[in-house]
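Q: Could you write out the predicted structure for this multi-component system? I'm mainly interested in how the pieces pack against one another.
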Amino acid sequence: NAGVTQTPKFQVLKTGQSMTLQCAQDMNHNSMYWYRQDPGMGLRLIYYSASEGTTDKGEVPNGYNVSRLNKREFSLRLESAAPSQTSVYFCASSGGTGFDEQYFGPGTRLTVT
Amino acid sequence: AQSVTQPDIHITVSEGASLELRCNYSYGATPYLFWYVQSPGQGLQLLLKYFSGDTLVQGIKGFEAEFKRSQSSFNLRKPSVHWSDAAEYFCAVGAWYGGSQGNLIFGKGTKLSVKP
């Protein structure tokens, strides 16, 4: 079992460019999440998907879109990257709700110049 | 609104010494409380959680936490710290943003350094 995998591990974008962060889990989990982690800010929820076919906004959704492609995969898209989106992005999954144990991927470090 | 405060940004302890990391929460009802750990360059891992019942909760890696409603606290403890415990520790509270399910609000984290 690979658990939660994320690609890419590192990315540098110029302001205005777009990109998609990919996430996949092999634990047959229903719920998946995207967080961003900034120094001194902890983790903040961007979007989540409680089940295949559904997505909901979290605490900081502006500037992002998500797609729950199937039960395994949950992608995060930045349509027009801004320097304020420089961060480390983590994908996570859980079997049930967000109150169940969440399993985290290794993260994607994104820099927007 | 729910919130979590971790008053200590950085703590240094000697190997073998005891550890207590502080967490205070704001929540109207009985909260769902969690501690996660993040080793350098990795994602987070659940240490323990409290939903109800016994206020002293045991977790993995020898950690425990005590829920004190009167103090709105959920402090993490370990009797003897090992060098491998050096990491960042996050307290979290269950919250409802709206939408289809509850999720977590994380504190800003406490970085633990361990001296040999």
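A: Regarding packing and overall arrangement: Chain B has no helices and twelve strands.
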